[in-house]
Design a protein that fits this description.
By secondary structure, the chain is α/β, with parallel strands linked by helices. It has one domain: FAD/NAD(P)-binding domain. It has a seven-stranded mixed beta sheet, with helices on both faces. Strand 10 and strand 11 form a beta hairpin. The protein is globular, with a radius of gyration of 22 Å. The protein binds flavin-adenine dinucleotide.
Length: 416
């Protein structure tokens, strides 16, 4: 045990990135870490599902093998092994075994289950139902620590927390940390509505692994998750005003939106009927991204996950990059702490924050750019056959290999 004061880290937001930072650093010598979460322990996205990208679990396995095993357990998730894509009449263009482009298969999981698996082992470090009322630097000196004023939403009690060395903003797309210390990001809209819901699968489990079906810029994406439920994410282009028109939120509109002249395939008929029968369950959104930022000017604040770089969801890289961010940041800090311990020094936090940015920026911008390029098939007037044929070409498959395989290198940090 060192006789230096520990580095005090406040993580704001117990989502994907925040939990993984805490997992990586809780129990680390020279670190005191706590997490402030505004929501309750059970997460509000409980009604939907997600597919985690191969790059997320590849890195998680290196950094936290027990958690990787827990996420793959029977009943917790189902394996994501194949990717099928075609037209809503049933014509298949892509039938990809993920291992052609990735080093490992991944998972399909319910959001609530993912949050349960991420949060429960680190419950002692998270304060739920707590909001940040104020945060800032204590003074104007270069060495100034940060402070937080937090409020318990259930009791109304306020607490002032001083001497914080690093605030990690993991508070999602509408980040209070980013707005307070860095900027107010301008959302960039794709001009596409995305809606998501969970529906019961058919008795004969007509939907299984990851699949996408297109018709003239309209897309149905689906996969089964444990409990014999099906996650559906539908999309359609929006007109210039970018608002989601009320008439589009109706069974009549949605039933017609994906229908080819030759009629729906059996699978797409099931998906469209399920959407229409469960229209009240739908979570509506517009696809948008924000420019990537990482640290603030003074170097004691670091944004990760959606607060740093919310991206178009087309390749499922939102949560996946949050996995990469959280795992990498914790492993990198451990390496910096080990080096500092060897030299008998305290780590230079601004230099650490700059190092995270210098290593993560290109990778995150690649994921954002690739997600943007892959989104053209969701735009009005785009020929789906052209987009689908492109998905099968070497250029696209090589990009996927880079995305799924070229995870940040954490070997040095983990060798110790
Ligand atoms: C319905 C839906 C389906 C999705 N499906 C996929 C998918 O299949 N694959 C994929 O890769 N991505 C998917 N995404 C995107 C994904 O959710 C995000 O990219 C990912 O969750 C980002 O992780 P994060 O840790 O940055 O933030 P989040 O997971 O959003 O976590 C942020 C946390 O911070 C808390 N918080 C916010 N503000 C504050 C505050 N001021 N103080 C304290 N706490 C705060 C929130 O309550 C939340 O717990 C989906 C998103 C949605 C909405």
């Amino acid at each position: 045990m060192s006789d230096r004061a520990p580095i005090r880290i406040a993580v704001i937001g117990a989502g994907v990135a925040g939990c993984l930072v805490v997992h990586g650093l809780a129990g680390e010598a020279d670190v005191e870490i706590f997490c402030i979460e505004k929501g309750p322990e059970a997460n509000v996205l409980a009604g939907t599902g997600l597919n985690v990208g191969p790059n997320a679990l590849k890195l998680l396995k290196q950094c936290n093998p027990n958690l990787e095993v827990a996420l793959r357990a029977e009943g917790v998730s189902l394996p994501w092994e194949t990717w099928t894509a075609g037209l809503t009449d049933g014509t298949v263009f892509l039938d990809l075994n993920l291992l052609q482009v990735a080093d490992n298969t991944v998972i399909r999981i319910r959001w609530a289950e993912l949050y349960r698996q991420l949060r429960s082992p680190i419950a002692a470090h998270i304060r739920y139902n707590t909001i940040v009322v104020e945060m800032g630097y204590a003074d104007t000196s270069a060495e100034s620590p940060l402070y937080l004023v937090i409020e318990d939403q259930q009791t109304g009690d306020r607490q002032h927390i001083d001497h914080i060395d690093l605030i990690v903003g993991c508070d999602g797309r509408y980040s209070q940390v980013r707005t307070t210390f860095i900027d107010q990001p301008e959302p960039k809209h794709l001009g596409v509505c995305i809606y998501r819901l969970l529906v019961p699968n058919s008795p004969d489990r007509i939907i299984d692994d990851y699949q996408q079906w297109f018709y003239n810029g309209h897309r149905l994406l689906a996969f089964a998750i444990p409990g014999n439920e099906v996650y559906i994410a539908g999309s359609f282009p929006l007109a210039a005003g970018l608002e989601i028109p009320e008439e589009a939120k109706t069974p009549a509109y949605l039933r017609a939106a994906y229908e080819p002249p030759t009629g729906y395939s059996e699978v797409c008929q099931f998906l469209v009927s399920s959407v229409c029968a469960n229209i009240d369950q739908i979570h509506w959104a517009r696809i948008q991204e924000i420019d990537a930022v990482f640290g603030d000017q003074r170097g004691h604040v670091l944004c990760l996950g959606d607060s740093s770089h919310a991206m178009f969801p087309t390749l499922g890289q939102g949560a996946t990059q949050a996995f990469e961010d959280g795992c990498f940041m914790a492993a990198h800090l451990k390496q910096w702490l080990a080096n500092a311990r060897q030299k008998g020094e305290r780590i230079n936090i601004p230099a650490f924050v700059a190092s995270v940015e210098s290593i993560r920026r290109d990778r995150v911008q690649f994921a954002q750019q690739f997600s943007r390029e892959a989104s053209d098939a969701l735009l009005a007037g785009f020929d789906p056959v052209t987009a689908l044929i492109r998905k099968t070409q070497p250029a696209m498959l090589n990009q996927l290999r880079k995305l799924y395989r070229d995870t940040p290198d954490v070997r040095l940090a983990l060798k110790r």
